[in-house]
Structure formats: C-alpha cells, structure tokens
Amino acid sequence: MTFWQKILHYLNPLTLFQKPEKRPNLNLRFMHGINRISIFMFLLGLILLIIKYIKG
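The structure assignment produced for this chain is given below.
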C-alpha cells in the first residue's frame, strides 16, 4: 500500500467495526480513536482556513 492509501484506510470509519485478529488493549483503542478525531479536526480547520482565505 502507498502512504496515502494507508492514511485513508486508517481514517475510514468502517475500520472501527472490523474485528481485529488480535484484540488490542482498551487504552490503545481509545488512543487510536482520539488520534482519528484530532486528524479530522485538523483537516476541518485547514479546510475552513482555505475557504476563509478564498472568500477573502
């Protein structure tokens, strides 16, 4: 997989409901969830800044 495909796979909400081969620790699952939320918030903020810049 390429770098971007791995990122898109990681951010895909459907991967949250797949059963992993080995059940990860609850803390690790929460950490991944928080990481996803922070990446989505960053992208949302970046999009809003770009829209604000374009509208001038």
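Interim note for the steering committee: Residues 27-56 form one domain. The two ends are 39 Å apart (CA to CA).
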